[in-house]
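W.,

You were right to be curious about this one. When I first looked at the sequence I had no strong expectations either way, so I just let the prediction run and decided to look at it fresh. Below is the sequence, 124 residues in total, followed by the output.
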Amino acid sequence: MSETYDRHVELVEVVLYVRDMRRAISFYRDTLGLEVAHESDRWTTFHTGACTLGLHAIANRELGQAEPDPTFLVSDATVEHARLAVAGVDVTEIREPAAGVQVFDARDPDGNRFSLESRVAPPG
């Protein structure tokens, strides 16, 4: 018995654990510029395109260690890098892991790492 199976896998949600929900919402909404989809004291989600970013409030967990590393696609990594650095966000240097791809890492107020990436189509 042979059946066709669609192995399409799509990331639909990334959850970050935070100690201070108000501070985390302010960071992701006001500093990073994401739109809030749902907001509560224990669970908040943001529209990020095809994937949802969820913040889950928790008091007793070692944060910032071996956590997910969501990557946000932005128009221009250089512009976003400068904007976040001016806002006091801890950012790494911009790197180019592949032709036309610029990416850098940053940390939210709870120490969770995230990346911002821009892609430029190769010439020709």
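Here's what jumped out at me. DSSP finds two helices and eight strands in the chain. And, maybe more interesting for your project: The chain has a mean pLDDT of 85.

Coffee later to discuss?

I.
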